[in-house]
Amino acid sequence: MDMKPNDLLVLLTVSRSAKFTTAAQTLGLNHTTISRRIAALEKSLGGRVLSRASGGWELTELGHEAVRVAEQVENAVSSLGGSGRGPDAITGVVRMTATDGFSAYVAAPAVAKLRRRHPGLSVEIVTVTRQALQQRSGLDIEVVVGEPQVHRAEAFKLGDYELGMYASRDYLIENGTPATEDELTEHRLVYFVDSMLQVDDLDAPRRLVPTMKDGLSSTNVFVHVEATRASAGIGFLPCFMADLHDDLVRLFPETLSERLPYWMVLRPDSMRRPAVAAVVQALQDQTVAHEKALLGQRGNQSTTPAAKSGSA
Q: What is the CATH number assigned to the segment(s) 5-78?
């Protein structure tokens, strides 16, 4: 078997991005060289190590075995250094998907802190609100709303967040403040596009106030917040986003609310990568810090006369 360690490392890099072009950029090679190295490795191993998938390239069973060996080679090389310290293992590209709000308020600051310590790390965040994928080729981390039902993946709960009904002060002055929940039917809802909503757990407003008609709908939660602030209707908004705006008033907080969980989904082999493990830990730490900050904020609000309530 004429197998070259460098070819194994090329496969390892491809496995982390699922794309030859990205691996080529990481290694400073061109696409043709990556393809040739993979072909040479497959010839020496006597079988395919990669197969085509919708998101790029996916490891075969032989590929998984080869990657495990490649990781050992990488660790051995990393342990060699002039001062006894190897290069930073937390490097390369980590790809993740998450909802808009989580991406902005949890993932972004978590990655920013992590990159200050590990400048060789690059994190790509795709914002999307959907169920966890069953095939996640080229994707290291998914953050979804609600407990996922997945196969060949690891899933664990990150934390919770709350949603509630909000209206702008100007909207309530112009249209009146609903005195009862039944009066909400006289107002229009600002929320997700019902026909495009892929997460059953997010159907709360249409379950809580089923006769409330849509006013402005969007697939982006930032649009929900800004449309509600612009008096497009009454929005069902994440409290951690809406409570940042003094011009928004929460309506019926005791009864019209929904608490939902964030879950993280990982490929079984993802955590073997130091970079992925570091991002996962950073997201966990930032989630905890974010929840503590929200609790402190609510405590301060509840002790002041200006605390928000269901009145303008």
A: 1.10.10.10
Q: Where along the chain do its domains lie?
A: 5-78, 88-312
DSSP 149-192: --SSSEEEEEEEEEEEEEEEHHHHHHH---SSGGGGGGSEEEE-
Q: CB–CB of 231/174 below 8 Å? A: yes
Question: Please, which pLDDT band fits residue 301 given cuts at 50, 70 and 90?
Answer: low
Maximum distance among all alpha carbons in the chain?
79
Alpha carbons 69 and 120: distance in angstroms, whole number = 23
| Rounded Cα gap, residues 81 and 19, in angstroms | 30
Pairing assessment for the beta strands 50-53 and 248-251 based on DSSP bridges: unpaired
Single pTM value for the model:
0.75
- How confident is residue 305, by pLDDT bands cut at 50, 70 and 90? very low
Q: What's the pLDDT at 310?
A: 47
**What pLDDT, on the 0 to 100 scale, is given for residue 265?**
93
Q: How confident is the model at residue 91 (pLDDT cuts 50, 70, 90)?
A: confident
Query: Following CA atoms 58, 62, 66, 69 in sequence, which dihedral angle do they give, to the nearest 10 degrees?
Result: 130
CATH number given to 88-312: 3.40.190.290
Amino acid identity of residue 139, one-letter, is L
Other Cβ atoms within 10 Å of 235 Cβ, number? 31
Q: What integer pLDDT is reported at residue 75 of this predicted model?
A: 73
Query: Residue 105 has what DSSP assignment?
Result: I
- Beta strand pairing call for 257-266 and 154-168: antiparallel
